[in-house]
């Protein structure tokens, strides 16, 4: 186990011993032939949880988002997403480089778009314009500090898209966190979207994997495209086995991460040199401004205290709660922040 108190991301979580055992015992086959029973089980279970017809096991969230885009667009199409959406900000322009799709970004409020904004961005057919084919939403929103959409907001956004002939892809990397925060089943948040992807490898602690879910026909296209991008895996059941344990055993415990995120936010909100409104903390991500010193100096000083955190941009720091951050680690992290911000010269 890492000697650090690692708050950089929930992606650092290690597989549980139940996952390791399931991986060792997994029944496997060649998944490119559709013959891996454990992958098939995971895909069916993921689709059931998302309320969709079919699922596709992918190597990463980035791959699942890419396939969600590629399976619902053609080269030269336009896609609408929020300006800091993961699919735009962090995915190496895969949609453009591989899919030939041009993103149109709209500024959101902590990552969230309004239906009126999307409506205004849609254009009437014109010889000059690319066809707009897809709306991408993100729930929870990573750079938005773990912000969430509720069922109604998602429905209204999707309705605008559908009324204008667009499909909707939901980047639900942390959809179970969103569902917990909103007190609804994940399937209800996914229902308005045509496709949804979620990650097994973040707060759910699986070592690898994400699942793209959607209509049978779209997933069939995505499966072929997965082969194109080199994502056709063979005895992938050893990985899917951990994913099944993640779905069975790890979803409910996300509530602990949310509770600790809230406690962390409360503790840091009163700390001089930190600016944070705890009301903005909805899930397991705590994002705040540091005014005591440049964020790089803050992160370096924190590291000297044994605490790792990240920065989404100048002046900002992000801490993500997960299974390896218990009460003791939380208290230690708060203590470290207080010592760093109180250092002579910090202000
Ligand atoms: C919202 C969101 N979407 C997609 C991804 C991509 O997942 P992966 O790192 O598995 O490619 C991430 C990863 O942090 C994410 O936060």
Automatic annotation (TrEMBL):
Gene Ontology biological-process entries: glycine biosynthetic process; L-threonine catabolic process
Pfam families the UniProt entry points to: Beta_elim_lyase (PF01212)
Cofactor requirements of the protein: pyridoxal 5'-phosphate
Entry's transmembrane regions: none
Domain of life per record: Bacteria
Keyword Magnesium recorded: no
Domain Aromatic amino acid beta-eliminating lyase/threonine aldolase: residue ranges: 6-288
Residues the record lists as N6-(pyridoxal phosphate)lysine modifications: 202
NCBIfam families according to UniProt: GntG_guanitoxin
Protein name stated in the entry: Threonine aldolase
Biological source species: Limnochorda pilosa
């Amino acid at each position: 186990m890492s000697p650090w108190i690692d708050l950089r991301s929930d992606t650092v979580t290690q597989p549980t011993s139940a996952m390791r055992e399931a991986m060792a015992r997994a029944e496997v086959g060649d998944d490119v032939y559709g013959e891996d029973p454990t992958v098939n089980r995971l895909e069916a279970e993921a689709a059931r949880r998302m309320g969709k017809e079919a699922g596709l096991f992918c190597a990463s969230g980035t791959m699942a988002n890419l396939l969600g885009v590629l399976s619902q667009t053609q080269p030269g199409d336009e896609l609408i997403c929020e300006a800091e959406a993961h699919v735009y900000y962090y995915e190496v322009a895969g949609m453009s480089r591989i899919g030939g799709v041009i993103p149109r970004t709209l500024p959101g409020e902590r990552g969230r778009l309004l239906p009126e904004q999307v409506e205004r961005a849609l254009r009437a057919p014109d010889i000059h314009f690319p066809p707009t084919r897809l709306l991408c939403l993100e729930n929870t929103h990573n750079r938005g500090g773990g912000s969430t959409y509720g069922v109604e907001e998602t429905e209204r956004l999707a309705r605008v898209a559908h009324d204008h002939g667009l499909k909707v892809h939901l980047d639900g990397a942390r959809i179970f966190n969103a569902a917990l925060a909103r007190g609804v089943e994940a399937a209800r948040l996914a229902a308005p979207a045509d496709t949804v992807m979620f990650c097994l490898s973040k707060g759910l602690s699986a070592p690898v994997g994400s699942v793209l879910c959607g209509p049978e026909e779209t997933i069939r296209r995505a499966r072929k495209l997965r082969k194109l991008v080199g994502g056709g895996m063979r005895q992938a059941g050893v990985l899917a086995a951990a994913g099944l344990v993640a779905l069975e055993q790890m979803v409910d415990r996300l509530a602990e991460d949310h509770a600790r995120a809230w406690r962390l936010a409360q503790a840091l909100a009163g700390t001089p040199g930190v600016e944070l409104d705890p009301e903005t903390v909805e899930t397991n991500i705590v994002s705040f401004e540091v005014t005591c010193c440049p964020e790089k100096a803050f992160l370096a000083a924190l590291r000297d205290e044994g605490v790792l955190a990240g920065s989404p941009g100048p002046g900002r720091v992000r801490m993500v709660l997960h299974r390896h951050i218990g009460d003791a680690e939380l208290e230690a992290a708060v203590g470290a922040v207080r010592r760093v911000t109180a250092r002579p010269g910090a202000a």
